[in-house]
Specification:
Strands 3-2-1-4-5-6-7 form a seven-stranded parallel beta sheet, sandwiched between helices. By secondary structure, it is α/β, with parallel strands linked by helices. The radius of gyration is 17 Å and the shape is globular. Helix 3 links the parallel strand 2 and strand 3. Helix 4 runs parallel beside helix 5 and helix 5 packs parallel to helix 6. It has one domain: NAD(P)-binding Rossmann-like Domain (Rossmann fold, 3-Layer(aba) Sandwich).
Length: about 250
């Protein structure tokens, strides 16, 4: 089967689909024939992506809202009547030294990185069971090593990796495959967007990270995209419960 035949008329949900990895995934899935619902908090950004393809619909919603999962699934089902792939791509991160720990920031990371994917998996279960679909969780290579300043970001994403393995076992009898991708330093705008760093600081960190990557460059959303397609594809019949680290060797550095 070709990629286009695999994805023709399939339906995907991509949270955090207005930029970076989520945007790239949505555009490629639409190009291959899928219908895609993207979510995010900024309607202007969502619209700018949806305008690029008639197969993409945007839904302005905050993943931290516990009611968001049911709204997302209801929207996808109302539009297209099925769900074949859920990409839990939304993420929250807040750099904090220990002396500046902020309870609200820690709660927000937990809500977006752990609670939101959990509720979306729950809400989409019946539709995914019907389609024998797939779930792809986007975590981070940060969780592979100790990570001062971003400890709670790494910890909540590590929790999502554990959930990935648990859901894979729990949902296997229903034909639903669950895997995760742990990207390394990727040019996605996350440092200034999700992390909220000033542009100057973000540029400095980007340069430092690029120098740490054995393959000598930061990644791009396009480096992650093939793995989303592969893990989410109906042609992937016997791979589940895996966390694939895609980071140019970054997490293997001494």
């Amino acid at each position: 089967m070709t990629q286009s035949s695999i994805w023709q008329d399939k339906v995907a949900i991509v949270t955090g689909g207005s930029s970076g990895i989520g945007r790239a995934a949505a555009l490629e899935l639409a190009e291959l024939g899928a219908k895609v619902l993207i979510t995010g908090r900024n309607m202007e950004r969502l619209s700018s992506v949806a305008e690029l393809s008639s197969s993409i619909e945007g839904l302005q919603i905050d993943s931290a809202d516990p009611d968001s999962a049911e709204q997302i699934v209801s929207k996808a089902m109302a539009l297209w009547g099925r769900i074949d792939l859920v990409v839990n791509n939304s993420g929250a991160g807040h750099p904090m030294p220990l002396e500046a720990y902020d309870p609200a920031a820690i709660v927000n990371m937990s809500e977006v990185n752990i609670v939101a994917p959990s509720l979306l998996v729950k809400a989409s279960f019946e539709a995914l069971k019907e389609s024998r679909g797939a779930i792809v969780n986007i975590t981070t290579a940060v969780s592979q090593n100790a990570a001062p300043m971003v400890a709670h970001y790494g910890a909540t994403k590590a929790a999502l990796e554990y959930l990935t393995r648990s859901w894979a076992v729990e949902l296997a009898s229903h034909g639903i495959r669950v895997n995760a991708i742990a990207p390394g330093p990727v040019k996605s705008g996350a440092l200034t967007g999700m992390m909220g760093l000033p542009p100057e600081m973000a540029a400095q960190i980007e340069q430092q990270e690029a120098e740490q990557v054995p393959l000598e460059r930061r990644g791009t959303p396009e480096d992650i995209l093939p793995w989303i397609l592969r893990l989410g594809s109906s042609a992937n019949e016997w791979l589940t419960g895996q966390v694939i680290v895609v980071d140019g060797g970054w997490s293997q550095r001494v």
